[in-house]
Design brief:
The complex is a heterodimer of chains A (144) and B (300).
Chain A (H helix, E strand, L loop, with lengths): L1 H59 L2 H7 L3 H11 L4 E8 L11 E2 L9 E8 L7 E10 L2
Antiparallel strand pairs in A: 1-2, 1-4, 3-4
Chain B lengths: L31 E2 L1 H5 L11 H8 L5 E8 L2 E11 L3 E12 L2 E2 L2 E9 L2 E9 L3 E9 L6 E9 L6 E8 L13 E6 L2 E6 L4 E9 L4 E3 L2 E5 L2 E5 L9 E9 L2 E9 L4 E4 L11 E9 L2 E10 L4
Parallel strand pairs in B: 1-20
Antiparallel strand pairs in B: 2-19, 2-21, 3-4, 4-5, 4-8, 6-7, 6-9, 9-10, 11-12, 12-16, 13-14, 13-17, 15-16, 17-18, 20-21
Classes of the chains: A alpha+beta (144), B mainly beta (300).
Chain lengths: 144, 300
Amino acid sequence: MRSISSRRNVGQIRIIEAFLSALVIFSSLTISSNLPLRQETLAYERFASAGLQALAKIDTDGSLGRYIEAEDWSSLGNTLNLILPAGISFNLTIYNAQMQQVNTQTISNGSSSSQDTIFIRYVCASQSSLFRCYIVHLHLSVIR
Amino acid sequence: MNEGKPSDWGRSRVLPLESFGLDQADLSDPYNLDIDKVTRLNSGNVYRIDEAQIFSSIRIGDLSFRLEMKPIFEVTISPGSAIRGPIDTAYEFNVATDKQGVPVHSELKSYVIAGNYFKSYSRIAPQGTAIVNVTIPNNIEGPALIIVLARASPNTRIVSYNAYPFSHNGSEPNIKGTFLRLSPLDYTADVHFIYPETELSNAYALSYNYSSIMTRTPISNQSVNYSIPHYLDVGPTLVAVTGWNSTSFFTEWTAYPQIPLAAGADFNSDTRANVFTYDHIVTIDSTLYQCRIWIGGPSE
């Protein structure tokens, strides 16, 4: 009798073990599938923030509008390259209020093979006597 | 980022800090920081707020905090040749301006100070490098100091600087802070002597476009202060003081705002959970600086 009871207990323990193992595997799969998504979201937010901040800082004293109106694409690109964190590739396109491209040269710090590009749209009002507004499209990606 | 409480806690040498914040008061532009609030984070300033004050006033629970600020690009000064002639000695310095190894096209203003000798030089570093040739008369006591202010050519609000003390007439330079501590605050440079027998000679306020000799106001036999002029220049003002201790001549310098700086907990030497870093470009007195903030959980 004791032997049959002991076998039953062992069987019950095995069932509990199997159930717990399944629970652990299921939980780890659920958590791990969410982790990269959260990290990607954080990286995206940091990049977008860095890009927006860089444009806002150049615009604070009216420099952004001055570069555009003087068509000084080289200085605009070099300034952006200095302000953005290292390791970020950018491509900038400037449009007027009618959405016609204004920059006649590419404003970029080199091409990136990355597929993950972040897009930022920024509206700049020139501080000259004649009011003009420009729509700035900034694409950012990580240099790999 | 906010202005903290009281809103002028940076300028005051006595007001208790109730709430931590670095923004300049009465300005709507975010990340436009107060020159004195930032300066009071520098450990070299005698009016610095210590870590305990920061933690008690920042109110972020049991999280740790660290803040570092520095110019957006670096200036490196390397000595080249030194040729002694019958009247003066010619020195060559290689100046490099770069951001993490990438050359920065910049305009340079160099100041050379030795005893009562003072001279400025202008150069352009088109590929991020330039040679600055300096001559100092042999009848001037050493050591000497070269200070370089660099302005990024595409945007003059991006400024950096560095200094290099060097031997002249056989007098070797001492380590920074050997004879005195320079503490700028509220457009006043306080000089605190480390040895009582220290005598001061000249004090200079240097920016990219302007330079002047500052006038002193004695405070006690252990300290003196100088009024720092409000230049119409974008960029920091560098303060340099010359003097002697017994027979040793010296030149000390600092920047106002007193950057680079690091304040708060050390995140490199311990294991904290959930550490987040945030990079910001901040404005101080119309100049752009790089700011990195660490926030992390308690040690595991």
